[in-house]
Amino acid sequence: MTTVTQLGSLKDYRPGGVQVIDDDPRNYVFSNIFDVANRSAPYERVAVGKNFEYLIECLRAEGTSDWYACAHDEFAVCMDGLVRVELLKLDDPDDAVDPGSTGGHKLSGAPKGKPMGWSKIKRGHMALLPVGSAYRFVADSPACMIIQTIQGPETIERWADICQTESL
Amino acid sequence: MDTKTLASGFEVKAADNETGYRSYKAGSFSFSRDGYFAYIDHPNGRHIMSIDAFLRALMRDVAWGFFYGTVNFDSVFGTTNYYGEVEMFAGLYNDAYTKAGRDYVERFKSEDLMKIFREMISDWTVDGYDPFAAPMETGSAWGPKAGNNDEAVERKRVTAKRMVGLPGDTPVRTDANGYSVNRMFADVDQSEPEVHAEPGFEAEVSAFNLFAYLSRSDVTWNPSVSSVVKASLFCPTSEEYILPIEHGNDRCEWFLQMSDEITWQIKDGKTGKPRAQVICRPGDICCMPADIRHQGYSPKRSMLLVWENASPEIPDLIREGKAPVVSVKV
Fold first, then answer.
1. Which of A145, B102, B178, B199 has the most CB atoms around it within 10 Å of its CB?
2. What own/partner pairs with CB < 8 Å and gap ≥ 24 does B25-29 have?
3. Residues 138-197 of B with CB under 8 A from A
4. Does A115 touch chain B (CB under 8 A)?
5. Class of the A25-162 domain?
6. Domain B183-218+220-319, CATH 3.40.1010.10 — does that match?
7. ipTM > 0.95?
């Protein structure tokens, strides 16, 4: 038997949804990351999942991002397209971002540090964004990523705009 | 019985002369099986389940250490985790049973009940049957005692400490380490990311093919931890056929559908009354509220990212009624 694995993309996705019997669809905070990325500006960090302080952010990757740093590890998963992840070991991580803070922080200008290397991630690939480093993304054409992180200053929450509010 | 009093009285009985299977006792609950069925006897009645469904559910309860919240084996029998202690119940979360006064519950020290459950899954799983496998990929659970499959039932849940593939962490899956590509993911791209690390940074400049990793999973409905941000756990898993339990949430739990489609049937956590059906397709992300139970149906093997918050503070928040039922006010 030949089977075809269905994967989504920015150009080809077909959301499901909540079919209510006795409930409110908003309780399920239902959205689609490709839909969110299609409606986002490049590198906006839009929350699509929130569990206490923890987040899944959705990013539309397009062009070159600013540099970011974070006081804890983060992880990026490419869900469509191709993204180059560049890493730089910061000379003074605590100066770049408060060590007690959470989430990705946008850095002003080029950070000081030593190039660590880079990876190219495409659909289905996960990359470590290690604590103590700065990172930026480069995408020649639109791509979609999710970031496993914690709420930070760059997080955008627009739940009412992205989530299903009516039953299927 | 006062549910806060810990039950005792554990017993493993001799193998039955006809079936060859042992029977078990935990508190006032007794368990036995024959060729087709599992029987659960308790002071308020007897419950019967098809043995294959019972073993698939028992396997998850054992492998997940009673998991978060309630593991409903079906609409009647199950366990609720109190993190160190566990309640075993019949009909407790079934509106008809509770109204009729036919429900029954006892509380156990978790490790005591787990010991009995481990012995039961080992004795009752016959050679060739794998409770973790999709039905089309395993043999039969039926019939009299015929060997065992401890290699399958003693699998350990894979838990990365930081990220799969990092030095000293859980390795990526390959043919060489015994993980071949599943028949339903034969078309999944297996190429690994291009990674260029400067000297000295090889341990930090790291990426891996998560979809390929999932395409090589040898189990279904068994989330493994792939990456960790403090208490935030990405637990991706491959799913096929039906989630063997109705998972009753005690906290919010998120799902991101990475491939194919799962339909979730949602019922009220306490009464079992249907509340919703959630259809998830690639890219869909949603949250299970903390007061429901859910069961997924996956017609083709699919990739699902289960996202858990394993904060040790949450059990106390749940006990105090301070844990949110819904993650986000939309």
1. A145
2. B26/B88, B26/B106, B26/B108, B26/B112, B26/B113, B26/B116, B27/B88, B27/B106, B27/B108, B28/B1, B28/B104, B28/B106, B29/B88, B29/B90, B29/B106
3. 162-164, 166, 183-189, 192-197
4. yes
5. mainly beta
6. no
7. yes
